[in-house]
Amino acid sequence: MQDFSFYNPTRIEFGAGKIASLNQLVPANARVLVLFGGESARRTGTLDEVITALGEREVQLFGGIEPNPGFETLMAAVALVRNNDIDFLLAVGGGSVIDGTKFVAAAALFEGDAWEILLKGGQNIEHALPFGAVLTLPATGSEMNKGSVITHKALQAKLPFMSEQVFPRFSVLDPVKTYTLPTRQVANGVVDAFVHVMEQYLTYPAQAPVQDRFAEGLLHTLIEIGPEALADPEDYQTRASLMWTATLALNGLIGAGVPQDWASHMLGHELTALHGLDHAQTLAVVLPAMLRQRKSTKLGKLVQYAERVWNIHEGSDDDKAEAAIERTSAFFESVGVKTRLGDYNLGAGHIDEIIDRLTSHGMVALGEHGDVTPDHCRQILLASL
Ligand code: NZQ
Ligand code: ZN
Predict the structure, then answer these.
(1) Ligand 1 binding pocket includes 138 (Cβ within 6 Å)
(2) For residue 94, which ligand has an atom nearest its CA?
(3) How many helical (H) and strand (E) elements, i.e. helices and strands, does the chain have?
(4) Which ligand number lies closest to the CA of residue 287?
(5) Is any atom of ligand 1 closer than 6 Å to the C-beta of 180?
(6) Contact 6, 252 (CB under 8 A)
(7) Where are any strands of DSSP class E within 74-227?
């Protein structure tokens, strides 16, 4: 096991009706800005429930945070925070709203051009406003982690940042709030959480048996409940499991003490920034081809994954690895997330620009060994046409 430092200060309030606990969670004298996305929070009644729970506090609203939250939109929220002496933020939505709120929390106290936060990956964040979240979409784990991904539309750049200053103080997880999700977003959530586990598990053996078993447990659970969550949107127990699984997939626990990959995510971000694919769609395309391209360096873990997660015991190590990659693609397809670039109307002619962007963003030595180059990524995209 590798050395590690593990820190996670986010309180989780989990269960039906837990939005009412906002009254205890948010400081009584707070001047609150509630941030949300398009129309879903208002349409589903969640926004009203939140406002009611906040009682007599001074509350302002900022709506319109788009999927893949935009720097330009978020800077308007920063201006609102500064002009109104807001001292507490509350995100109501999915990963995009929570990520956007993390950025607003840091940017509101940042001196200079706030895009520098992304260019430095968050290392230049000294303070951030306190904030909490009401999660409406299980997928990203943003509700219990220190990461955020922001898109600069004009620059067509989607970049991540991390800082301990942007852990949510608390997150409210009410599975009932997921009942209104469109099928596509539930499927995206299953795939995103699955790939989060894979990015921290499918590297090389690191003598970390409990992390491996946790990771395999999360993968098994997603394989089991993914289809159920799609088939019966109002099955509380299934939605509860999906919600907590997605949180555990990226709250730091399974990644402590083990090597991590994240190459599929970094390449996927370029596909979203340039061509607008949903985050999970990019992962469904990239991950299988990424695993195949790097089969030799990942073989030990691929065989373990094949045997323990997919129950594949026949054939050579290479056969097992190949069969496990096939099962992975088939699982993504089975929940309705397509796995070929062609499914999203992208062809060989688009690849050069994607690779140019990846290179210009400094993503030239990716993966757990830092040996995944832009040229490898080109081969990966060609293989996923
Ligand atoms: O905008 P509204 O109208 O609210 O609709 C949203 C949005 O269109 C809708 N939605 C959310 N909750 C709903 C609902 N519709 C009906 N009922 C509900 N209860 O769902 C759509 C997608 O929402 P979004 O927040 O974009 O999805 P998701 O949670 O998948 O977040 C994706 C973003 O998170 C980033 C991704 O890159 C992407 O930008 N990620 C953040 C991570 C992190 N912070 O750790 C890790 C991930 O790898 C990921 O990169
Ligand atoms: Zn992700």
Answers:
(1) no
(2) 1
(3) 15, 8
(4) 2
(5) yes
(6) yes
(7) 88-93, 131-135, 147-152, 157-162, 170-173
Q: Per residue in 170-205, pLDDT tens? A: 999 999 999 999 999 999 999 999 999 999 999 999
Asked if 70 and 151 count as a contact pair (C-beta separation under 8 A), the reply is: yes
Q: 136, 144, 173: which is closest to 21 by C-alpha?
A: 173
163-193: b (≥16 Cβ within 10 Å) or e: bebbbbbbbbbbbbbbebbeeebbbbbbbbb
Q: Regarding beta strands 58-62 and 88-93, do their DSSP bridges make them parallel or antiparallel, or are they unpaired? A: unpaired
CA separation, residue 161 to residues 145, 166, 280 (Å): 11, 10, 19
At position 377, the amino acid (one-letter code) is C
- Residues of the chain falling short of pLDDT 70: none
- How far does the centroid of ligand 1 lie from the alpha carbon of residue 330, in Å? 24
Q: Tell me which of 279, 281, 287 to substitute to probe ligand 1's pocket, judged by most ligand atoms within 8 Å of the beta carbon.
A: 279
pTM: 0.98
Using the mean position of ligand 1's atoms as its centre, give its distance from the Cα of residue 94 in Å: 4
Residue 231, pLDDT score: 98
Instruction: Render 288-314 in DSSP notation, one character per residue.
Output: HHHHHHTHHHHHHHHHHHHHHHH---S
Residue 251: CB within 6 Å of ligand 1? no
Which residue matches tokens 């015991």? 313
For residues 204 and 297, is the Cβ–Cβ distance under 8 A?
yes
Instruction: Tell which atom from ligand 1 comes closest to the C-alpha of 99.
Output: 44
Q: Within 10 Å of residue 228's Cβ, how many Cβ atoms? A: 14
Q: Give distance in angstroms: CA of 189 to centre of ligand 2.
A: 9
Cβ partners under 8 Å of residue 115, min gap 6: 71, 152
Long-range contacts of 337-340 (CB under 8 A, 24+ apart): 337/187, 337/188, 337/191, 337/280, 337/281, 337/284, 338/281, 338/284, 338/285, 339/284, 339/285, 339/288, 339/384, 340/285, 340/384, 340/385
- Please enumerate, as own/partner, the contacts of 349-352 that have beta carbons within 8 Å and a separation of 24 or more: 350/274, 350/275, 351/378, 351/381, 351/382
Q: Are 193 and 218 in contact (CB under 8 A)?
A: yes
pLDDT tens digit string along 246-272?
A: 999 999 999 999 999 999 999 999 999
Atom from ligand 1 closest to the CA of residue 67? 26
The tokens for 164 are 């301990």
Q: Is the CB of 166 under 6 A from ligand 1?
A: no
